[in-house]
TrEMBL record:
SUPFAM superfamilies: Inorganic pyrophosphatase. Its EC number is 3.6.1.1. This is inorganic diphosphatase. Pfam families: Pyrophosphatase. It comes from Sphagnum troendelagicum.
Length: 320
């Protein structure tokens, strides 16, 4: 029986990513998904294999002005402000065919990059988990495939793994894009890496592939990977026990001592075992503060808005 995991962005931590409130579960059950009660009083959702063959459909991206926040003006998709998503796995894990697709409440396949809002309703950020902490499979959103599912990265036809586990939950900020035609004069005039902005989430819980967590941004590292600028936003899930203690980089040093250095060193060195040079970092080799991180997020959100409006060339990127 194929499982459809329910991710509730407004309740970022539910056991194993399967549980949903009963009221919403009954709503989903009307769509033909048999539901099973669990001891906690929540519901676990599963669909039979025949019910999960959902067809991808092209959709017209509509971009509208968002709202002003502490990070500046944001843009979001008009059609998808619902805070509940499910994931559907196709293929076997650790194979070239494995994909994790995202669905909205109606069962329509959506893009985790383009359709999940950058900002949640309460001003926090939505973070899409690609790689759970303490794992090594290099999972990523397939930016050139329709609906941009999560897949395992490949090189020369072989699945890619980090040489050692990553120690934090890792993923992306939806509705952001690092424009490869834009050079940043503050970071050695490096050009964007043509991907969404990455997030390193420092909370204690191991998330699951495809979870959508609400996070607080705390700072940002300016990694330079083979000449390309690859921002790493440091953030924490709002459900983490220490989330109320940290609001900026100096709080991270106080309550998670050594973490910022460990993140920088991990991303600096992870390619060395494969015979490649170490990555570099701009901004003085240190994490910039929350204010700077919000500026980066606002700028890359604006770049994404231009991309989906086709104001700039998309190249091979999928906009659906």
């Amino acid at each position: 029986m194929a499982a459809v995991r329910v991710i509730v962005a407004s309740v970022a931590h539910l056991p194993h990513g399967y549980a949903i409130p009963t009221a919403r579960g009954m709503l989903l059950s009307k769509q033909g998904a048999p539901l099973h009660m669990v001891a906690s009083g929540l519901l676990k959702l599963r669909r039979s294999s025949s019910a999960t063959g959902l067809q991808s459909s092209r959709r017209q991206q509509q971009v509208q002005g968002g709202k002003f926040g502490s990070g500046g003006y944001t843009h979001s998709c008009r059609a998808l402000q619902a805070q509940e998503y499910t994931t559907k796995e196709d293929g076997e894990t650790q194979t070239l065919d494995y994909r994790v697709f995202f669905l909205d409440k109606s069962g329509k396949t959506i893009s985790p990059w383009h359709d999940i809002p950058l900002h949640s309703d309460d001003g926090l950020l939505n973070f899409v988990v690609e790689i759970p902490k303490e794992t090594s499979a290099k999972m990523e959103v397939a930016t050139e495939e329709p609906n941009t599912p999560i897949k395992q990265d490949t090189k020369k036809g072989k699945l890619r793994y980090y040489p050692y586990n990553i120690n934090w939950n890792y993923g992306l900020l939806p509705q952001t894009w690092e424009d490869p035609s834009h050079s940043n004069p503050e970071v050695e005039n490096s050009f964007g890496d043509n991907d969404p902005v990455d997030v390193v989430e420092i909370g204690e819980r191991q998330a699951e592939i495809g979870e959508v967590l609400k996070v607080k941004p705390l700072g940002v590292l300016a990694m330079i990977d083979e000449g390309e600028l690859d921002w790493k936003v440091v953030a924490i899930s709002i459900t983490d026990p220490k989330a109320h203690l940290v609001n900026d980089v100096h709080d991270v040093e106080k309550h998670f001592p050594g973490t910022l250095t460990a993140i920088r060193d991990w991303f600096r060195d992870y390619k060395i075992p494969d015979g490649k040079p170490a990555n570099k970092f701009g901004l003085g080799d240190k994490a910039a503060d929350k204010e700077y991180a919000l500026k980066v997020i606002a700028e890359t959100n604006e770049a994404w808005a231009k991309l989906v409006k086709r104001s700039v060339p998309a190249g091979e990127l999928s906009l659906v």
